[in-house]
Amino acid sequence: MDALTPQFDVRSLGDLTQLGKGGQGCVYAIEGLRINQEWPVVYKEYDPAVRAQLDVAQLRRMVSFVPGLDPATGRWLCEQSAWPAALVTRGSAVCGLLMRRIPAEFEIVLPSGGGATRRPAGFQFLLNSDPYLARMAIPVDDRGRLLLLADLARSLSRLHGLGVVVGDLSPNNLLFRLGDQPCCFFIDCDAMRLSGSSVLPQTETPDWEVPIPGGEPLATPATDAYKFGLLAIRLFARDQTSRDPAVLAEVSDDLADLAEASLAVIPAQRPAPQDWIAALTTVAAHDRLAGSPMPVRVGPAAVPAGSETSAVGRTLALLVLLGILIVYLVNRFG
Q1: Do 42 and 27 touch, CB atoms closer than 8 A?
Q2: Is there a contact between 128 and 238 (Cβ–Cβ < 8 Å)?
Q3: CA-to-CA distance for 44 and 25, rounded, in angstroms?
Q4: What is d(CA 175, CA 102) in angstroms, rounded to the nearest whole number?
Q5: Residue 42 and residue 101: Cα distance in Å, rounded?
């Protein structure tokens, strides 16, 4: 171990409280430890089958990555993600890692059986219909969607500049925060690729695969670009599986063009996340979106708010005109 690679024996972590279990192992709350003396941590313990595939040297490089950055960049990465912060060993074997606990602002309170439950604010909640979002009390409008995508595009661009690729970019690994400054937070960062290497074999979330599985390398800037385009489409389609970029034409032709190009089978033809930022921020600043009620969507199309009332008014006007015409004809021809 060197000075840039913090390491703890699992017995030194004290009492462990399980927070959750995923495909790679369990996550436990840890009391009394802080990253940079300010951020609470959790312990992720890999299942034995996962440990057998672990590239310990690469995990060590990931833990050493933040301390080796300049302070401002290191702080940015810790504020944007649950980046691996320390190795955890049992005896001489690495069994897991410490990482930042999900910040409270990236959690949401959902209605549940007459009460409420607190959950990580995963992007999968946003890929649902407006009635669902209303029932779950998630107050997102199209301007919020655009600002979330702009923040994600900036983060991906900066990560790529640091030699980091998300790889399995999907709602399972991405959290959101709404409010005045919507932004994103990355989890499961040990699955990312750093400087061309991965801690574990790269996998893809179902329905978020690249166009031709096995036809291009996984976890490259081009695969991140493809999945960013998918996320943009599905965020505005209010749908978990849509691949039709036309939904973005309702918001901006430029965004629809970027989304279509992102789905290109040829990786080099996909726009980088950086290429989205200007269009996203420009549309988000538009008067039509800033602080105004958003359309109520029915299926894939949008019905502007108040259009039902307008339709009733037009019908009544036609009936009045028809009545006047009938009276005229009766008087004219007896």
Answers
A1: yes
A2: yes
A3: 7
A4: 9
A5: 5
Q: Does residue 301 fall inside a structural domain? A: no
**Same domain for 197 and 275?**
yes
Is there a single domain that holds both residue 145 and residue 273? Answer: yes
Asked if 122 and 175 count as a contact pair (C-beta separation under 8 A), the reply is yes
304, part of any domain:
no
Does the pTM surpass 0.90? The reply is no
pLDDT in tens, 208-258: 999 886 789 999 999 999 999 999 999 999 999 999 999 999 999 999 999
- Tokens standing for residue 100: 């930042």
Q: pLDDT band at residue 36, thresholds of 50, 70 and 90?
A: confident
Note down the domain range covering 224. 118-284
CB 195 within 8 A of CB 61: yes
Say if CB 122 and CB 114 are below 8 A apart: no
In a domain, 223, yes or no: yes
Residue 183 is encoded by which pair of tokens? 């932004």
Residues in CB range of 28: below 8 A, 6 or more apart: 13, 16, 17, 18, 19, 42, 43, 44, 45
Q: pLDDT grade, residue 79 (50/70/90)?
A: very high
What phi and psi, each to the nearest 5 degrees, are found at residue 71? -55, -40
| Distance separating alpha carbons of residues 97 and 87, to the nearest angstrom | 5
Which of the listed residues 100, 134, 153 is the one where a domain comes to its end?
100
**How far apart, in whole angstroms, are the C-alpha atoms of residue 146 and residue 128?**
16
What are the tens digits of pLDDT across the range 116-132?
A: 899 999 999 999 999 99
Nearest-angstrom CA–CA distance, 149 and 238: 14
